[in-house]
Prior knowledge:
It is built from no helices and eleven strands. The chain is an all-beta fold. Strands 2, 4, 5, 6, 9, 10 and 11 form a seven-stranded mixed sheet that branches. A four-stranded antiparallel sheet has the order 1-3-8-7, with no helix packed on it.
Amino acid sequence: QLQIVESGGGLVQPGGSLRLSCVTSGATLDYYGIGWFRQAPGKEREAVSCISPADDNTYYAPSMKGRFTISRDNAKSTVYLQMNSLTPEDTAVYYCAAVIPPHPSVVLVTAGEYKHWGQGTQVTVSS
């Protein structure tokens, strides 16, 4: 059973940066696609960025393109989300999730398709 722990959240000023980490254990990360999702108060959970197991395909939500970068280091069992140019609209709880897709190059982007979830890390963007 894959376990997931997110870290790296916190309070940052508008325009600032944060790097979130998603550390996995209990299974080999190599086979898992990883997705970062977020949920703001009163809003539905939405996909932020996702990466395929083969590290050859990624997805970014339109509002994150050019600002966020997802990467993975299977040797460290960790997936990162580098977030730059943060705005107050990015304030949310950020969740990391994992799933084994039907092919290593497939990237899944729907929360309901993910099987393993972390507890989330709070990101607050405020001056």
